[in-house]
What does this fold into?
Amino acid sequence: MGQQPINRQARVNPILSFFERIGIHYLDQISQWDPYSLLWSSWSFPAIPNDLNASLSILQSHLHSIAPVKKNDLAGFR
It folds into this structure.
């Protein structure tokens, strides 16, 4: 709460543009799930160019507070 939407934070635009170029459009594309409980376990980011590491760090901080808990709950994040 109280955070700007991801697409409104200029500092994450470089990494979001990179993700769009490589076909990542949804949180479930970078989410790891426990196969038995379907609980979210971590983010799984592709290899990131070095010049985007700062933007990725900001995105990771933002995502930390909005991570879905269960795979079935992810529909609202598409």
Q: What stands out?
A: Strands lie at 31-33, 40-43. The mean pLDDT is 79.
